[in-house]
Amino acid sequence: MYFRILHDEASGELTYLLADPDAREAVLVDPRGRDLPVLGALLAERELRLRWVLRTHQHDHLQVREPAQLARLGAPLVQGAAGETLRMARDGDLLPFGHELLRVLATPGHTAGCLSFAWRDRLFCGGLLAVDACPHQPIPAQPEALWDSVTQRVFTLPDETLLFAGHGRRARAVSTVLEQRRWHPFFAGLSRDEFLARVAALPLAPHHAALNALA
């Protein structure tokens, strides 16, 4: 297998490229529209056909621009919410590429339609564990659902499962279920009510506070 990580130093956002080199089929997880030239070059370098473009989550203020740009990659765009040129995935869906399979897990909370994608011993979980670290979503959209997704879906996976984030803080891209279950600052050792209280105390980013004031 071929596996690449692309990390944006400024925003901390991460994109993943998975490929079956024998079948010459690839998948992109959380690509960004502004990276199309780089992504196209990576695919062309190894003569890979892009089978799927997978988005673990989407933000309302980017929802129009990003899908239109990503559609230029020429592969089905899969996410947890329906839209024009978008394929909505559901919990348990299987997405084949080459001789490999990705399994879809519904993990709402960071945003309402969050998905995670399981492949071999890895889970690509986007912003699920970035409780206060996402530049576009400073607080979870659905804190109650986030608690359930993390504690009941992610933390019940085998300890050695590798968790690949959508946002890297201090250049950290990968951890394990065991590590996050024991030491995550918002989940380890907290009750559901304690978690919700900590999230409720998080400050809003200025533009989100302004939107709430207008609501």
From TrEMBL:
GO terms for biological process: glutathione metabolic process; hydrogen sulfide metabolic process. InterPro entries: Metallo-B-lactamas, Mito_Persulfide_Diox, RibonucZ/Hydroxyglut_hydro. The lineage of its organism: Bacteria, Pseudomonadati, Pseudomonadota, Betaproteobacteria, Burkholderiales. It comes from Polaromonas naphthalenivorans (strain CJ2). GO terms for molecular function: sulfur dioxygenase activity. It comes from the Bacteria. This is Beta-lactamase domain protein. Residues 12-167 form the Metallo-beta-lactamase domain.
